[in-house]
Amino acid sequence: MNPTTLGPPRNISMTVQHITCVRMYGSATRTSSRRLGQAMKSDIQTLRYFEFPELAGRLHFHCDRLHANLSTSACGDRWTIAGTASTDVRWVTCKNCRVGALHAGELDANPSPFRGVKLCARCHQTATRLIGKHLCASCYNRQREQIVGMNAKGTAPIKLAPLHGRVISYMANGVLKTKTVERSVDATELIVAVLRDEEHAVRFVWQAPASMRTLLQREESHE
Question: Is the pTM of this model over 0.85?
Answer without folding.
Answer: no
